[in-house]
Amino acid sequence: MWGLRKGIRYNVFAYEDRMDFQGLNLSEGRKGVSAVNIQNLLAELEVPQKEQPDFDAVTKSAAIYGRTQDNRDRFYLLVDENSKTFYVVELFM
């Protein structure tokens, strides 16, 4: 996990076999997220490039926006089924 800075948190998880992401409306590939937004957030955390998601390898993704009045909280989920890895980027305002 990369530390919480400026309201941003980044986690990378590995999983075995099959992971069930029930209840999430995942898009195929990276259609569900903006790579530029995520890269900007990771740059603020100073995450090295080798620790960032390979956007070409992302097989499923989702962007979930907060339910607060100003709707600025964001949660990005990126799944790489080939490497059995998923990435979570959270932005809290």
What do these coordinates show?
It contains 1 helix and 6 strands. It has one helix at 35-44; strands at 2-5, 8-14, 27-28, 60-65, 74-80, 85-91. The chain has a 6-stranded antiparallel β-sheet, with helices on one face. A hairpin with an 8-residue loop joins β4 and β5 (74-80). The radius of gyration is 13 Å and the shape is globular.
Characterize the quaternary organization of these chains.
single chain
Radius of gyration over alpha carbons? 13 Å
User: In what order do the strands lie side by side in the largest sheet?
Assistant: 1-2-6-5-4-3
Order of helices and strands: EEEHEEE
Sheet having the most strands: 6 strands, antiparallel
Which stretches of 5+ consecutive residues score pLDDT under 50? none
Assign a percent range to the helix content: 10-25%
Please tally the helical runs, counting DSSP H or I stretches of 4 or more residues.
Answer: 1
Whole-number mean pLDDT = 84
**Span between N and C termini?**
19 Å
Coarse shape: globular
Structural class: mainly beta
How much of the sequence is in beta strands?
35-45%
How many β-strand stretches?
6
